[in-house]
Amino acid sequence: MRRGEYDEREYKRFAKGGKEVWIKASYHPITDAAGRVRKVVNILADITAAKLQAVENEGKLDAVSRMQGIIEYSPDGTILAANENILKMTGYPLEKIQGQHHRMFVDPTYAQSPEYQEFWRKLNRGERIEEEIRRVGEGGKDIWIQASYNPILDPDKRVVKVVNFLSDVTGRVGAVNHIATGLSRLAGGNLEHRIDAEFIPALEPLRVDFNASLEALEESMAAVSANTQAIRAEPARSRPPPTICRGAPSSRPRASKRPPPRSKRSPSR
Length: 269
What we know:
Blueprint: E1 7-14, E2 20-31, E3 37-46, H1 48-67, E4 69-73, E5 79-82, H2 84-90, H3 94-97, H4 108-111, H5 114-124, E6 129-136, E7 142-153, E8 159-168, H6 170-187, H7 204-233
Antiparallel strand pairs: 1-2, 2-3, 4-5, 4-8, 6-7, 7-8
């Protein structure tokens, strides 16, 4: 202040009763004709509400960042920033993706398709996109994500960036595909198929029950097959003779039994 330098900062102060107050203060040195500071004018603004709201929003975003992947793009698809969860999902360090285009995460054929071009046109029109979709990580590994692409607009409603919130659902999608394959094999009569790859913890009981069900079904079918073969191999003499019904009425009509006609005598003459 003595050098006549202007200063503006945010400060935490305490009001009566120890209440916490945030102020935005600007200090304006007033100098005389010789350039000497004669006084300092302090202009204050109470920003407590705005400060607390900003702290709350930051806390919410931090909580979301711990649970989900967050990646930011420029309107043309250039990667601006990514959190730690994105790096774990994709297998890339930040320096390998920052400044690159979003297409590095998609199949090369899809990246050249009209559908992919329309994807970015929608975002640049300010349209929000939600989808469960396959992406590609480092080394070509498959990643399935539940994603929400959110265009961020400036006061003039122009898209200035796109924020993508996403969750890794690769484990769930993989489990569904394994179960579908198992059911398809079962429908084809294959009772020996088992799912060996472990599922994510929440779905692991499903895999265990599926395998146990197939084992039980296989044992039941083996028992039925064994019983069938035993019956076929049983000697004919050990079987009871077929029952013959005697005296059953014939289906053909019986001839009627009538007495023979008497012979007529000629009258005596």
